[in-house]
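Troubleshooting log. The previous structure file for this entry was overwritten by mistake, so regenerating from the original sequence record. Sequence copied from the archived sheet and checked twice against the printout by T.R.
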Amino acid sequence: MSSLPRLMTAAMALALCTALASPATAQTTANASILATATVTGGFAALTATGTQNLEFGTIDAGTCVAGCPPVNNGRFEITGEPSASVTVSFTILPSVLDGQGPATGATIGIGFGVTDGKRLTTGTTTIVETFDPAAAKVTALDAGGELWIGIAGTVTTVLTSTNGDYQGTIQLTVSYL
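Regenerated output below.
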């Protein structure tokens, strides 16, 4: 046998012995997770607010002022939560202008809100129970079924040189338990 194959056999045997003689490495860390959970009872129902109808002024002639609109066109919000709970209702965004859309992009028309443009409505209807100033927080309560309906009216003002087209702005309501 030549010396090269013997040398290779010896090297392979030495490598095998070294591998078998090396100590095994154990896993030195491990992780596990659990959840912390709780079930709350006897508290308040979750409070929700949903915009159910946009404030619709309809078609307006340039150079005119449209104060309010029929109650059926008022903006409306439905609030649900804990029956008979006291809440604060605030209009946190009341725009002072409506921004032009499409061909009217870049143009604006004025919008304003008077001290009686906030409306507390009979549940699920357009019947006004009381009016309030939408620029101020309103303290009221959900009904025995856990509902409250809020409406909003306003006044839109255009000038003779207003650009034809659609205009819009965001009105945002925030409600919180007292």
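The first strand starts at residue 48 and ends at 53. Archived copy saved in two places this time.
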